[in-house]
Amino acid sequence: MKKQVIIILGPPGAGKGTQAELLADKLSLYYFETSKILEQKFKEPDKNSIEIEGKKYDVLKEKKLWEDGILCSPPFVSYLVMERVKKLAGEGESLVLAGSPRTLYEGERVTPLLKELYGPENIKVFLIDISAEETIFRNTHRRICELMRHPVLYNKETENLKICSLDGSKLIRRKGLDDPETIKVRLKQYRERTFPLIELFGKQGIKVNKINGEQSVSDVHKDILKAIR
Ligand SMILES: [Zn+2]
Q1: What is the pTM of this model?
Q2: Exposed/middle/buried for 51, CB within 10 Å: 0-12, 13-18, 19+?
Q3: CATH number at residue 125
Q4: What is the Å distance from ligand 1's center to 172 Cα?
């Protein structure tokens, strides 16, 4: 099978991570998680700073942003993402990306690299579409487990779930992050960042497939598979 890249976009609560995991399993893809790449870098910084396009980025300063819940500098993130993409492509891996690229800056740099390494015809972008009301509903109904704080999104499959399927601990609500007002802010940020990205993919000759996200996890998965084949 040809090496390929699948990119999944969608608002908070669309189930991007879940779909990425399912696709990774089904199609033997490498699940490319930007947050894990950042985490790794911060755990074992091999340099104090990285020079990108003539500007120095302090790794510890970026770590501080990360720990404060603020987005790291886009050039810093793009640099690490591109480094890892090159390595994985060299190893012959096919990729699935969820919620990444996150910014237009990142998309403008990472997309041409992906095209060069995999070929534009082997890159597929999916937008899991759910309404604003649904995003707010799902996120305000999101629960986490008491023991490991595993997130459990609200949907038909999980609405009656009482315990974490991974460790058996009780499921509870989060305060703050999942309040309707906070979700509205996250939704606004998502729109401001994602719409320019969709335009960018179009300009780069990559089609964005819209998938109805307001159906069961398995039906969303089936729709994505259908569009890939
Ligand atoms: Zn758990």
Answers
A1: 0.85
A2: exposed
A3: 3.40.50.300
A4: 11
